Amino acid sequence: MNDVIFEDKKIILKDEDYFNIAGSLDCGQAFRWNPDGDKMKGVVKCVPVTVYRQDKDVVIEGCGREFYEDFLKNYFDLDFDYTGLIETYSYDERIKSGAEFAYGLRMLNQEKFETLISFIISANNNVKRIKGIIERICTAYGSEVDRGVFAFPTAEQLKDVKEADYSVLGAGYRAAYLEATVKSINDGYDLDALCKLDYFGARKEIQKLKGVGPKVADCILLYSFGFRSAFPVDVWIKRIMEQLYFDGKETPKKVIEEFSKENFGENAGVLQLFLFNYARKISLTN
To answer: Is 215 a catalytic residue?
Structure first.
């Protein structure tokens, strides 16, 4: 971690080489970031934030030191040694090449309830549509934190929202899941308690919520709960892993999950980001 300069509503990460801003914020990990020229604008835990590169530095506008140290530093995963991880797996040309192709890619550590709802919406969906649904939910039920900019609503703010209301906002069949899951949270389901479990226990427990299957559970656990060994297997990752590690043969998702645990260990979810980008590099995702 390099020097950090704190100014009024501005944070400067000096000589921060390892931060691919657009790649990290607009790659399907989170859905409230959008490009604005060479900047990325988003709302992080009720705070509108703008991130951009200025020469060798990374500039974060919109927040102060306290928010940065309490949340944003971890959100951007700034204490994690990515170069060390890449070096550890440099013997695997696929991981090494993917990391080079998407140099500076970071995994985000997001707010739990927002991540839960966002990835329920993400099921069988594309990023553009996911973003649209989430933005409409925020506009309809979230607090306005700047002119025309709304925070992600809390479970309390969504307590009276019904399936039909989510349907009007474009949630489709997921509308019923959203109503049921929000009700579970308001009835006392404790998301924070999942952090006290091991990965397998947390994965089993979170699937008790409506709309949370194995893949959605892994996304939530990876991008919000600190379970870096989670390895979400969707259609694309299944195809990529089959091509890269199973000689192109049809392979059950469970086998791929077990392979990731055995070969990629506690940082399997981070390495998956590099593998996806390696697949992009060699046009497997076309």
So the answer is: yes
